[in-house]
User: What shape does this take?
Amino acid sequence: AVVSTQSTGGGLSGMISWGINYPVDVVKSRIQIDGMAGPRKYKTAPACYRYIYQKSGFKGFWRGVAATLVRAFPTNAAMLPVYSLTMALLTHLRGEREAHVEY
Assistant: This one.
């Protein structure tokens, strides 16, 4: 595949991935810092989900998603072609049949 196609695909797939997983990441992040500045608020992940929903509603799970999506596109757009090129190079260096990567 052409680098621009891989870059576009990587960028879009990264944005889709973050869009789907963002609420879970919000809960994970809250649990990780829970108790650092006082008593713990959450005993379990479901308790954290309930707390966020009660305090902020559905939008509480999406606070900050725009910045994450803006970051996700260029990060993943660079990663996919670099991964493909690296795998093709390593395959070539090992003397195996060359990977089908066109650039």
Remarks:
- The radius of gyration is 20 Å.
- The first helix runs from residue 3 to 33.
- The chain has three helices and no strands.
- Residues 2 and 103 are 5 Å apart (CA to CA).
